[in-house]
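HUMAN: You are asked to prepare a plain-text protein record giving the amino acid sequence and the backbone structure tokens, both parts labelled.

ASSISTANT:
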Amino acid sequence: MKPSDRQGTSNSVLTYHRIVEAFKFAYAYRALLGDQDFANVTEIVKKMTNPEFAESLRQKIWDNRTFTDYRHYGDFYSNSSQQGTSHLSVIAENGDAVAATTTINLYFGSQYRSTRTGIIYNNEMDDFSTPGKKNIYGVEPSESNMIQPGKRPQSSTAPSIFLDEDRVARLVIGASGGTKITTAVSLVMMNYLWFKPNFAASRSRPQASPSVTPDAC
């Protein structure tokens, strides 16, 4: 993408339509991912990072329509949202960069606190899938994200540092907002690094955060 892709109403509408459709594929295939120590995700990660696979998905994006049948994007299910998240991004004068996201997941986490420290415990377990049971948001379970001892649940947190070809930090970013985190970080990155307005404009532009369903264009 390039700055001219967002010049004029027609170009902007088409560009964001394509981005939204691409996000739907990303959410569909996300359901296949899980803790690599427990789920065999090597092949799916290899596939998802293959330019030929990306091109095959690009061919499925139509400029004049969306698809009400979610199986067009992938017959998978994704993970839950989180509601108790904060993020901190720092760039030091010497170029050192830190992106840190912390969360207790839902509002007030597990709704239990330590009687000694007063710290509220998280309920990150809700990020796991439970066989035959929808999560608190009504999301169907994902096979790769089932609960196992010692396993990490799938999370939307995405603290990110983007480097240029000289390994210098160009953008340090993260977000809160549950499953909207990944699309928000992606859109700000696209705005700032591809469409090239200043950062304030990149961050304040309207956001699009679709999942596979319901249908959106």
